[in-house]
Design brief:
The radius of gyration is 20 Å and the shape is globular. A hairpin with a 6-residue loop joins strand 6 (179-181) and strand 7. The protein has one domain: Muramoyl-pentapeptide Carboxypeptidase, domain 2 (2-Layer Sandwich), CATH 3.30.1380.10. The chain is built from 5 helices and 7 strands. 30% of the residues lie in helices and 13% in strands. With 207 residues, the chain is of the alpha+beta class. The structure holds zinc ion. Zinc ion binds next to strand 5.
Length: 207
């Protein structure tokens, strides 16, 4: 009897250990437009307006981990009271697209090695800028995917006064909600805690 109980106990431990509810496995991805339709979508990889010069996303959708999306909605509230709106350029990116990018730009300052995976592949990074109350994109240090030193946050001294001011609004709001800036790209932020999210290759579709 003791032997059976012991076996049962060990089996329970093994089963509990393999249960998704007990792993650091987070829930899937959500569509930001559902929680904050006021956020502007300008998903560049769904258009040829990106460094690949062709659309690599089948549709313009911003998917993020729910906790990351919640933070971004709070950032939107912060900038909205100042008369601005977030304008998103990229959110979750399937790993297969990351591989296409890496084949073109083999430089880890700008594109993450797909062998390691990008934080975009984890649904925990966002590329974004700001628009004014009329929905017009604000002047910023550079355009999106400007893979030059000018896009680096340490190049601030060379930016126009207006770009510096607009960038400061975005940067303050993002940091206030726990987003970490990437030094080489002023438009890229990782969500703190991104490590817990696995790299994904699920296709882009509204959720
Ligand atoms: Zn990015």
């Amino acid at each position: 009897m003791i032997k059976i109980s012991l076996v049962w106990l060990l089996l329970s431990i093994v089963l509990l250990g393999s249960s998704p509810a007990h792993a650091a496995e987070p829930e899937g991805l959500i569509d930001i437009s559902r929680s904050a339709p006021e956020i502007q979508l300008d998903m560049r990889y769904a258009t040829p307006e990106n460094f690949l010069r062709r659309a690599v996303y089948p549709l313009a959708v911003c998917l993020l981990r729910p906790a990351v999306a919640e933070r971004l909605v709070r950032v939107q509230r912060r900038v909205a009271v100042q008369g601005y709106t977030l304008r998103l350029w990229d959110c979750y990116r399937p790993l297969s697209v990351q591989k296409q990018m890496w084949a073109i730009v083999h430089d880890e300052r700008y594109v993450a090695d797909p062998a390691k995976g990008s934080r975009h592949n984890r649904g925990a990074a966002v590329d974004l800028t700001l628009s004014d109350a009329q929905g017009v994109a604000l002047e910023m240090p550079t355009s999106f995917d400007d893979f030059s030193a000018r896009a680096g946050r340490d190049a601030e001294a060379g930016w126009s006064e207006t770009a510096r001011r607009n960038y400061a609004v975005l940067d303050r709001a993002m940091r206030s909600e726990g987003f970490l800036p990437l030094p080489s790209e002023w438009w890229h932020y990782d969500a703190t805690g991104w490590e817990i999210y696995p790299v994904l290759d699920v296709p882009l579709a509204p959720r």
